[in-house]
Amino acid sequence: AAQAAAPLAAPPAPPEPAVPGGATARGGERERIVAALEAAHWNRHRAAGALGVSRSTLWRRMRELGIE
């Protein structure tokens, strides 16, 4: 008697890469953005410059990470 092959399951998604301090990469990004915003007194233009990204990139990442 032939045995039916079990359907192949998709491999689990890899965990987010760890960064020093035990935070995930996204968690670390959130912390870096918030720290830059606080240092710039929430001036997004200056915070974006300190992070080396454009204002639109900072705005998008803030939206993705739930930073208001």
Q: How can the largest sheet be summarized? A: none
Per CATH, which architecture of the domain at 25-65?
Orthogonal Bundle
Number of strands: 0
Q: The CATH topology of the domain at 25-65, please?
A: Arc Repressor Mutant, subunit A
The helix-strand sequence is: HHH
Termini Cα gap: 62 Å
Residues in helices, as a percent range: 40-55%
Beta-strand content bin: under 5%
Question: Spans with pLDDT under 50 lasting ≥5 residues?
Answer: none
Q: Gyration radius, to the nearest Å?
A: 20 Å
Counting DSSP H or I runs of 4 or more residues, the number of helices is 3
CATH class of the domain at 25-65: Mainly Alpha
Explain what you see.
The protein is built from 3 helices and no strands. It is mainly α. It has a domain at 25-65: Arc Repressor Mutant, subunit A (Orthogonal Bundle), CATH 1.10.10. The mean pLDDT is 81.
Summarize the structure.
The protein has 68 residues and is mainly α. The chain has a domain at 25-65: Arc Repressor Mutant, subunit A (Orthogonal Bundle), CATH 1.10.10. The protein contains three helices and no strands.
